Amino acid sequence: MHRLLIYSLFVCSSLAFQLPFSIPLFKSRDSAHIAQVHVSPRIAIIGAGAGGSSAAFWISKAKEKFGIDVEIDVYERSDYIGGRSTVVYPYNDTTFAPLELGASIFVDANKNLMRASKEFNLTLTAFEDDDSNTGIWDGQNFLLVVENGSYLKSWWATLKVLWRYGYTAPTRTKAIVQSMIDRFLGLYTPESPRWDDISVFSERFQWASMTNQTASDFLEGNGVAPLFAREIVEAATRVNYGQNVDKIHALGGVISMAANGASGVVAGNFLIFEKFLENSTAKVFLNTNVKEIKRKSGSSLWTVYTSAGSQTYQGVILAAPFHQTDIILPSDLAELIPPQPYVDLHVTLLTTRSEHPRPEYFGLASNAQVPATILSTYEGARAGGVEPEFNSISYHGKVRKADGAAEDAVTDPESAVKIFSEERVTDEWLQTVFGNVSWVYRKLWQAYPVLLPTSEFPPVKLDQGFYYVNAFEPFISTMETETIASRNVVDLLLHEEFGTGICGALLSGTENATQTATPADFVLGWDC
């Protein structure tokens, strides 16, 4: 995890791994299912990734603060918690420190994940101090190499950047990024609105102009030189979202550049989501497929049919991409959710004794030093050149034993490398690029929604008591924004069904604005 741009900004494997704790709330499909008669009303949450786990946590905060009488059941078809955030171990040996296979970083502006890490006593590692070289590759040539300094710390103002792109493009882009962050931080204040219409929400935060046009059009319209947008910014969009700057909407493009203060949980970001559930009152059913959700005849209740049985609920929160779940909904509700394409991303992890990729692959002399972090741009292919065979290559330090492992430290450790690509990379290709390769792990993710320019979004509220967290993903998709979307959904649902929410009876930003001045470190949902 070398570079701030190399990972999802904030950011489903079938891989099985053991939970680091054993508590009764995590149940397998074979466990006794929920009894059919309950005193308390129940809410079902489908999905145990960032959105579903945080939704359970937000409900539990409301229960704790305001005594809401409700029970929570979380259904997850996989055998682990975390969704697109999970880890693997070098050589498939759990005595080694894990490597992130999915969402890898979150940043200072991600107040929910930062706060959760602090509250749950999770150890973070920062990614700003790396001093290896970074290059931008167009399929035939390195267009830019930034030496001996953190890439995001350097690209705004290094002489190489200024010489190639001038002064105006970096400074205007930096101002656009900062303006977006400033507005984003408003989502953590007491004045933050709750929304069931993402288009209205986007207008309120002045983001509509960023979601209804491409990043390249938006940046060029704001005085950013096309070369800068199609090389520097595109390097960020390709590594963060697997999409080119002339396709992805501008909000996705700008968020790709906003990675200051990037961190990750040392033992894996999935621990945040496990802790969300551990610190909720939810019962979690792993390895449990939700097959169908029906209205209960003659009432506003919902029946959820799973591979383990059925149960009736007062509220349902769908916290997974609907069209990937194979869940049957009433036809009038299913029609409300348009198909959402996702990027097929091949992630390849490997270990090698090569300190850098081999220069011959890049057409360089055998004694040339290749950057340890390589981002890519499609600009050469637009001009009729060769398309890069990868989105990014990044060295992640040396393979080491996990903290507390009984075995001795690794002698003569190998380097860990991560590759993002649109196509599967073969063993032969790996040998060409790295020479000796000892261990390889491949994963094909439906990693991110395709963020095409749009002014229309799925509904947040599908029906009374039925809400859709992932309606937010075509707007923007990160680990952090999933926790924000779930907070919003939980607040709407609790107000609708129980007359109060995460922060009590207040619902609108206008009502919240009557409160007294709040502390600078206030985080909505945690401190209200």
Automatic annotation (TrEMBL):
First and last residue of the signal peptide: 1-16
Origin superkingdom: Eukaryota
Classification via SUPFAM superfamilies: FAD/NAD(P)-binding domain
InterPro entries reported for this sequence: FAD/NAD-bd_sf, Prenylcys_lyase, Prenylcysteine_Oxase1
Record-level GO BP terms: prenylated protein catabolic process; prenylcysteine catabolic process
Gene Ontology molecular function terms on file: prenylcysteine oxidase activity
Keyword list, A-Z: FAD, Flavoprotein, Glycoprotein, Oxidoreductase, Signal
Cofactor: FAD
Domain named Prenylcysteine lyase: residues: 154-496
Family according to the record: Belongs to the prenylcysteine oxidase family.
Protein name according to UniProt: FAD/NAD(P)-binding domain-containing protein
